[in-house]
Amino acid sequence: MEEHASVVSLAIVVICAFLTPILLHRFRLRVIPVVVAEIIVGLIIGKSGFDLVQQDMWLETLSTLGFIFLMFLSGVEIDFSAFTGSKQKEQLSNGKKAPNTFAVSSLIFGGVFILSLILSYLFVWMGFIDNAFLMTLIISTISLGVVVPTLKDRQIMKTNIGQIILLVAVIADLVTMILLAVFASLHEGGGGSMWLLLILFGAGIVLYVFGNYFKKRSFVESLSTGTIQIGTRAIFTLIIVLVGLSESIGAENILGAFLAGVLVSLLSPNHDMVQKLDSFGYGFLIPIFFVMVGVELNLGEMLSDSKVIILIPLLVVALLISKIIPVYLLKKWYDTKTVFAAGFLLTSTLSLVIAAAKVGENLGVIDQKMSGALILVAVISSIISPILFAKLFRNPSSENPTVRVKLIGANQLTLPVTKELSPHVYDVTLFHPAQEKVEDETSSSLFDIVEIESYDIGELKKQDVFDTDILVVTSGNEERNADIALYAKEIGVERVIARIETPTLQDKVRDHDVDVFSVLTSTTSLMKALIESPSLIGILTNRDTALYQIDVHNPKYMNIPLRKFPFTGDVIFVRIFRGNESLIPHGDTELLRDDRIIVTGSTEYVEELKRTLQFGKSRSIEKPEL
């Protein structure tokens, strides 16, 4: 009977997690993040509401796994190129040069931690808590579980301001996680076991070297398909090993999970692997964790204590002060609304506050009511901060959205392409060694070419060539092209195109998701097509009837049937590629995120549709009704 009850409770939680995003979409509550809505639903069905869920081993295990997987995915989300400051020369829409993301983020967190320490001593002085160190960790931490989904929803994860917000949250979580482990060691073992944390980080380094060695072995690719899926097995093994090791040395399990995510990010997994992990985490385990956070809170019991009632608003104010004042440093580069929006989003605290409250309660530093109050404040901050962020934030890069394309090697192939690509959509830069002569001297003066000393990877890094969305490598040496392309994929360039003629070398780079261009293959395919399908070539080469690919990223147009799509202009939808599927569009077909649609129509309207669907920004062109 008890087992039956546990399954019923699990079913209630899973059903609520399933229905929550549907209800948000149905009632157009886009300002509320899904994770926050899940906590609210948990409050309704839990101890504070109808008390429909009974805590048991099933829910406790799945909730803990959700928490661990959330921390793991937060580590995976880190863009380590931001730590190198490679995006320092990026131009903002207001004309200013973007700041060095790592330097600014470190300064902001330094300010956050100092203010948190001062505010913590005020809480100790007022008699709310006895331990200033624990309160400092609680005030200074920032929830990656709220920040990451919010940045993803606004499509700003890779922008300069998005990376600054993410890095502040990452630094805050990493520092506070380590300090929380130190805090637990000090109170449990008198400080003697703190050195054991070095074992965890040492194991992380060993596993990174091990993983980096084996991911390049040819047999790994053959074991990554079918029923074996060795890559997925390796990742879950990494998580469990580091979580187990973390708990064994007396640290928090989330420290091991976060470290596992960082290692996976450093090893540069392919896009499909990250999508699988996201789908599993955000589709199953993580929603259970957030619903259970709400289920376990007992508002009635907490609010019966007058001390707790006074503490809650004071702590919310402390969270705001500790984040907004340091973030005001960004006013040098961004407008006031953007700065305050960033400050409000960084006010969100959830995962580590829950962990710190539980650790403090287990160690006897705080009682159960105080622990519940801290978690409630974290929930309140997670509810209000994304809403305030959504109200204030305006994407500074959305006015002139462009895809950065960098081409290595100026020749008869690349020079015409720089003029053919639309400047409204693509920001094209061409790199060529100064000592080499461009193939067509009479045309070279017509093109904007950045001169480099050589094709050496060190020189290319110095010129920020790898800081791009699309990299095209077309030097005169195909082996050099392959080396540059493989290095670019290794450091995380999303799309790389390389000119390679040798079939064996083509196969080698294709195994690393590099797109291959071959003059011989292209010429042969073109001649064959001219013989077999001359009309098709006409469609592909005629400007008025050409086919174009548009990637769907704008969340505003998700799940809208094409018959109700508010913008087509002089454009026809020809095909929709969704994952490995190829769909013929009709009136009831709904667009989904990451769809790749093939369209034909006038260049003006195609460019407008590309800006609308890829970037969420369109200029006023009269659009006829469907």
TrEMBL record:
GO terms for biological process: potassium ion transport; proton transmembrane transport. Keywords: Antiport, Ion transport, Membrane, Transmembrane, Transmembrane helix, Transport. GO terms for cellular component: membrane. Coiled coil: none annotated. It is a multi-pass membrane protein. It comes from the Bacteria. It is found in: Membrane. One of its GO terms (molecular function) is antiporter activity. Residues 531-618 form the RCK C-terminal domain. Pfam families: Na_H_Exchanger, TrkA_C, TrkA_N. InterPro entries: Cation/H_exchanger_TM, Na+/solute_symporter_sf, NAD(P)-bd_dom_sf, RCK_C, RCK_C_sf, RCK_N. Belongs to the monovalent cation:proton antiporter 2 (CPA2) transporter (TC 2.A.37) family. This is Sodium:proton antiporter. It comes from Priestia filamentosa. The lineage of its organism: Bacteria, Bacillati, Bacillota, Bacilli, Bacillales.
